[in-house]
Write a structure and sequence with these properties.
Blueprint: E1 2-7, E2 10-12, E3 18-26, E4 30-39, E5 46-51, E6 57-59, E7 67-72, E8 77-82, E9 91-100, E10 106-110, E11 114-118
Parallel strand pairs: 2-11
Antiparallel strand pairs: 1-3, 3-8, 4-5, 4-9, 5-6, 7-8, 9-10, 9-11
Length: about 120
């Protein structure tokens, strides 16, 4: 069994910064791509940023240049540094990871989500 636990959400003023973190634990052989998705009320969940095990990153156009994703492969963690936050960044942010077990089967896991609210 694998768990993804997010932390770091909260309320921040427009223009502010926030850092999200996610830790994977459990029956893990290897962690492939990790990423962050978000879902605002009334909208579909969409990709924010993604990072492969070798460090290749991609970002949604709406956050490129403001958000930075990083990971620590030794600790199976992924972080999202968010800067210059805008009200439209308000959403529930979900951690996602593609993880292989000891049999090398890979599964897609999701965290429970953490609320980010950008408001004055």
């Amino acid at each position: 069994q694998v768990q993804l636990v997010e932390s770091g959400g909260g309320l921040v003023q427009p223009g502010g910064s926030l850092r999200l973190s996610c830790a994977a634990s459990g029956s893990i052989f290897s962690v492939n791509a990790m990423g962050w998705y978000r879902q605002a009320p009334g909208k579909q969940r969409g990709l924010v940023a993604r990072i492969t095990s070798s460090g290749t990153t991609n970002y949604a156009d709406s956050v490129r240049g403001r958000f930075t994703i990083s990971r620590d492969n030794a600790k199976n963690t992924v972080s999202l540094q968010m800067s210059s936050l805008k009200p439209e960044d308000t959403a529930v942010y979900y951690c996602n990871a593609n993880i292989a077990d000891a049999s090398l089967y890979t599964y897609n896991y999701w965290g429970k989500g953490t609320q980010v609210t950008v408001s004055s």
